[in-house]
Amino acid sequence: MSAPDLSRCSLNTATVKHASLTEAVEAAAGAGLGAVGLWRHQVQEAGAEKAARIVSDAGLRVSSLCRGGFLTATDDAGIAAALEDNRRAIEEAATVGTRELVFVVGGLPAVSAPGQGPRPDAGPQDRDIVATRARVADRLADLAPVAAEHDVRIVLEPLHPMFAADRAVISTLGQALDLAAPFAPETVGVVVDTYHVWWDPALEESIARAGREGRIASYQVCDWVLPLAAEPLNSRGHVGDGYVDFPTISRWVAAAGYAGDVETEIFNEEIWAADPRRTAETVGARYAAHVLPHL
Amino acid sequence: MSAPDLSRCSLNTATVKHASLTEAVEAAAGAGLGAVGLWRHQVQEAGAEKAARIVSDAGLRVSSLCRGGFLTATDDAGIAAALEDNRRAIEEAATVGTRELVFVVGGLPAVSAPGQGPRPDAGPQDRDIVATRARVADRLADLAPVAAEHDVRIVLEPLHPMFAADRAVISTLGQALDLAAPFAPETVGVVVDTYHVWWDPALEESIARAGREGRIASYQVCDWVLPLAAEPLNSRGHVGDGYVDFPTISRWVAAAGYAGDVETEIFNEEIWAADPRRTAETVGARYAAHVLPHL
């Protein structure tokens, strides 16, 4: 029996959070994977050009860069800061060698800053999610020309509705596609992340639409496991350990014409404590078992 | 300044979980509310006819009965048991004096039983959410004639997608309306529960549709607060303590023609520990402040 083809399997480096960029790249290459997904803080630490070399010297590609976004500020200074930071992110993506810059758009504005939950004693909060979403659309219009100029794609990530208040007011793939609609598909795309969208009754239809519209920029996989972790953000599991129907969703993504990398991005304290090389091997094995046969 | 009209404000007794039925009814009446929402275990303990008297003697109405559902079993015995239990629930609703029987439809079948999460070492799990939803539709077809015969309405409750794996494979109001569509609106309706649907980008449109189709059977209010509790089910907050935009959603519900009771249903350990009379007063005050002016 020949070894499975892991060339489209990518390790998002957040899955091996405590590894250096070099260690993460070595783990991915050692496990036979074809690509890595990077995070800006790593790229900034190494310098974008050097980060690009570390990846290409190992024979890998960069499947995406995480992340831009956080576009929901209401005040001029907050808006200016968000635009400036996202312009830098677009340049970093171009330099590090990926077209796909993942955007997490931010939550309700009064709580975008960490640790600032709304409390009855903290005065009025901005709860207007409709207006917040409209501001996201406005900021995309500001940034799309910058992305186009650098040949980078803004990749909208719908987050699970559990994170709608504090992380991302984009909660479904259909909504992400509506926000992307005014822009060229080369400039604004979407990511299908199983953790965030597996529950969506409109998922099959939205994936097909994303394919028709040429907007699937990334397919990210990890599993929904229960119980939720104390920090719900870190509740994700290895593919196959939870409730997600990977064969079905992978078939939908393939039927939509997606032929790019499949990134595994897991936030999980236990997995972060493991040896990055073992984690990369597990990522490859689970991809081969649950995803690859259905692509 | 005259006292606010709390006649449409209903206390769901789960909000005062540790109170007896009599104590809960006294608390609601004492706070000037117009109705209570009941749970089956309480109704069964008292007997449905006596429960009905306890409520009506206090001058209150029963706004709804919680809950039927859990319809996702795959095996004949599980299906028969679910049908039998729901037939009893329909009879109890009729006897206790409400037309509105709330259904929580159940999660992926291998994990419907408490404490039985899927584990890689526990063998194959049923992860087919598409087929699970189809079974819900089949069971509704079985039960709708029974509900119609008793002049009771099956009220489908979309639960927050956070609960899609283990509690309810209905995650959006639009999906609930699709499942209700084959049946008369007097027989199968939907509940708009702010906690579960506040994040939905299609919410305004789905509420309007629910109104047009005559299916809004209940409007339930409680707030999304963060951080999530260790048991996420018990993370809900009093209206006004969290992120939900009650004025906007209440206006949408009113514009859809809903003129029925507004139930407050909160699962929260801290609120359960409070004096039920104070809790009922808070429910009334928050309703008067955040909901009533927009109805």
Describe the structure.
- 2 copies of one chain form a homodimer.
- Chain A contains 11 helices and 10 strands.
- Chain A has helices at 21-30, 40-46, 48-57, 76-96, 129-149, 173-180, 194-197, 203-212, 246-255, 269-272, 276-291, and strands at 9-12, 35-39, 61-69, 100-104, 153-156, 188-193, 216-221, 223-224, 236-237, 262-264.
- Chain A has a single domain, classed as Divalent-metal-dependent TIM barrel enzymes (TIM Barrel).
- The radius of gyration of chain A is 18 Å and the shape is globular.
- By secondary structure, the first copy, chain A, is α/β, with parallel strands linked by helices.
- The two termini of chain A are 19 Å apart.
- Chain A binds chain B through residues 108, 111, 117-120, 125, 127-130, 133, 160-162, 164-166, 170-172, 174-175, 178, 198-202, 204, 224-228, 230, 232, 240-245, 248, and chain B through 108, 111, 117-120, 125, 127-130, 133, 160-162, 164-166, 170-172, 174-175, 178, 198-202, 204, 224-228, 230, 232, 240-245, 248.
- Chains A, B: GO terms for molecular function: isomerase activity.
- Chains A, B: This is Xylose isomerase domain-containing protein TIM barrel.
- Chains A, B: It comes from Isoptericola variabilis (strain 225).
Count of helix runs of chain A: 11
Alpha-carbon distance between the two ends of chain A: 19 Å
Biggest sheet architecture of chain A: 8 strands, parallel, barrel
Oligomeric category: homodimer
Number of domains of chain A: 1
Spell out the helices and strands of chain A N to C: EHEHHEHEHEHEHHEEEHEHH
Radius of gyration of chain A: 18 Å
Strand tally of chain A, please? 10
Give the % helix of chain A.
40-55%
Quote the beta fraction of chain A.
15-25%
The CATH architecture assignment of chain A turns out to be Alpha-Beta Barrel
The CATH topology of chain A is TIM Barrel
Mean pLDDT of chain A: 94
* General form of chain A: globular
CATH superfamily of chain A: Divalent-metal-dependent TIM barrel enzymes
Q: Helices and strands of chain A: which structural class?
A: alpha/beta
